[in-house]
Structure formats: C-alpha cells, structure tokens
Amino acid sequence: MSFETISVVGLGYIGLPTAAMFASRKKKVIGVDVNQHAVDTINRGEIHIVEPDLDMLVSAAVQQGLLKAVTAPEAADAFLIAVPTPFLPSENAGDIPKPDLRYIEAASKAIAPVLKKGDLVILESTSPVGATEQMAEWLSEARSDLTFPQTHGESADINVAHCPERVLPGHVVTELVQNDRVIGGMSKRCSERSVELYKTFVMGECVITNARTAEMAKLTENSCRDVQIAFANELSMICDELDIDVWELISLANRHPRINILQPGPGVGGHCIAVDPWFIVSKTPELAKLIKTARGVNDKKPEWVIDKVKIALAEFLQANPTKTAQDVTIACYGLAFKPDIDDLRESPALDITKAIADFHKGQVLAIEPNIDSIDRENIKLVTIDESLSETDIHVLLVDHTQFKKIKLNDEYIIDTKGIWK
Ligand code: SAJ
Asked: How far is CA 203 from CA 162, 181, 195, 206, in A?
C-alpha cells in the first residue's frame, strides 16, 4: 500500500522541514503540534523557527494545499514522530540525567485513536535504546483491536520503525535529501515500508538495521563528536597551563595522515550533542566511563572560561591602579551555541556572558550580529564598532564570520575559538 497522506507529529526543527519535504514531492501532509502559535503560523504559510530555505518550502506547500497544521491528529497512512526527548532534571548533584520520554508517550497516545490497519509509525526523535519498542507497547495498549510487530512480527497490522534524524541545524533542507538514512524496523516489513516512505525525497542510501541498533547508531554519532570535542577542550586547558598555543598544536598534529582533532571552544551547546550521550550513560553507567567523562569535561569548560575572565580582570586592575571594577568594560563576542546561527538555546556562550554580568560590577557588552535584542538588564547588546571603542577586556565566545575580520591590539583578550591569534 502506498502512502498518500503522511502525518508528522511535532513541527519543530526536524518535523517541519520533514513535513515540507514530503509536501514538496506532492504528498498530502498533516502536521500536528500542541503549540497553537506554531500551527497558526504554519497555516499562514510562515515558519516559527529559523532555518535557511524552509520558509519557501512551507509557503509553497501551504499555498498548494498540500500541508496543513492541526493540534489533534487525523487519520493518515504514515505517522512520523519528531518530538523532543530531553532529560529529566537530576534530583541530586552528580546524578546521571535520565531520558524523559513523556513527549513520545503523549504523541503515541494522541495518534493511537486514528490508527488503522496498514499504517506505518516511525519514531524520528533521538531516543534511548528500547524507546521504539516502548512506543509500540504504548500504541498496543491503546489499541487492543490492532496487532503490532512485538507480538505479530511480519504480519502485524501496524508497522513500527526508528529512523533517527541526523541533519545539521542550518543545513537541514539539503541534508534531509542528501544524507544516508538509518532505518531500524521492528520487522523486515517495517523496514522495507519505511524505506519506501523515505525514498519519496531521500537521495542518500536508506540502510536497514533493527530498531535498537538504529537508536544506538544515532546516540553513537553524537557521543563520538562529544568525546572528540572533549579531547580538544582538555588539550586547550593543558596547553594553557604549559604555555603552548593549542590551535597551532592541533593544526600540527592534524598534519598526521591518521589524526583529525576537532576544535576547542567555550563548551558544547545545542540540544543534541550535550544531551544524547547521557542516554547511553544512563542505560549502562558502569560501562560508559569515557562517554561520561567527556560530558564532564565539556560541561566544565564554561567555568574554566569564566575563571580566565576573572583572572584578566584582576590583572587589568593591578595594571591600572586608579580604576575599580566598576570602571572596567567587558565585551562578550557571540551568544549563539555555534557560529553563524541565531539559536541561543543551551548555549555555553550565553551562560558565560550571563555569569560574567552577574559577578562583574562594571559594564558587560554583548555582540551578537544574529539577534536584535536581549532580555537582560545587566547586558548591553552593541555593534562590533561600539564594542571596539569602549571595551577593556574582550571575550570571544563564538567564531561568527563577522568576528574573524576584527583586528585587536588590546592586551586583555580571552579567545576561546582561536580566531584572533
Ligand atoms: N563544537 C566544538 N568544536 C568542534 C565542533 C563543534 O566546540 O570542533 C561545538 C559547537 O560550537 C556547538 C556543539 O559543539 O556548541 C555542537 O555543534 P555541532 O555542529 O557539532 O552539532 P549540532 O548540535 O548542531 O548537530 C549535531 C550533528 N551531529 C553530528 O555531527 C554527529 C547533527 O548531524 C545531528 O543531526 C544533530 O546533532 C542532532 O540533531 O542530533
């Protein structure tokens, strides 16, 4: 049976581009989201998130009547679940964060009443191992009149698979089409039907495995990057202690044909790399020692940067004995969680800037070319030129393209990205 109507549950950074992509291939798409504002915005042909080229896709899809957004699920031939999977706040300091599957549970219970024999349900959200089986269980509990792959395998009424999203924010529209896709069906038929669905727009290879391996593959990709960034961040602190330029060191080491060290920074931000490794650690805490340690190294890096700013401030005051801390202006360059985007969520740069504004008695400036305002009274958003004329201590936190052209002769510089050497 082919897929005429496709429902995407969760219209965020992954769900909305995916919905728009199916619509661009002339499929009828029903997007579901609990956020009324998102639903209204999409139905006007506009978008509520920032992602290059997505506005054109959504506008065309809505105008052609191929994409509509609703708050309650309607019948469809395939359901893709792309809801957040955050972790639960730790009760005690040092506890391993546990995944929070409440959004997947809510989405499963919401679509269950409209499921019909022959439907395909795909979990796209990054999930701990076992989440797809758990989702199938929630669906089966809600619909005892239908059969599911955990009990009926190839002959189940409903097919279920995990096909993790792997696109890079800022490049979602291209990567959705071009990246290879890992397809983890709960049975062979579940996988084959998922491949058929994704081939509507995916030009990359759709590689079949089982649901648990697909879940672990996604977690492994992001944990691998986290461990590699932790290595670079640890090197940056060791080199600082030993008076070695870490950027030069890494570029020298990377000349070895089998070495490719990533870049240090102020810490790891975003909603994926700083979260997903915990899904492995919480399942196998005794075994995932390296992954846990890497998380610790990356999470501590912002504190190290804040200490560097405190040391620079003390040195500045010692060199300028007529001044007090109130007379000193500190500028933080970049607030986003990575270069050339406007996304401030889970951003170490923003956390560091706020922490500096909280301890420092003088002026704190922020330069973030990708936003128009900041809702903090003790942080003043300024342009690069304004900052250059007023600042005593410069703190580079994000390597936005605009900052690479800045030439500083000042003495007090903390450059966490190595672009002002
Ligand atoms: N970062 C460094 N040094 C580096 C590279 C990155 O400090 O050398 C920092 C960035 O500044 C940022 C954080 O790491 O704070 C994460 O940025 P990122 O560009 O590595 O990744 P994300 O979070 O934007 O997207 C990742 C991608 N995963 C991988 O590259 C393995 C993407 O493909 C996933 O789809 C996405 O997570 C996701 O949704 O899981």
From this structure: 19, 9, 11, 9
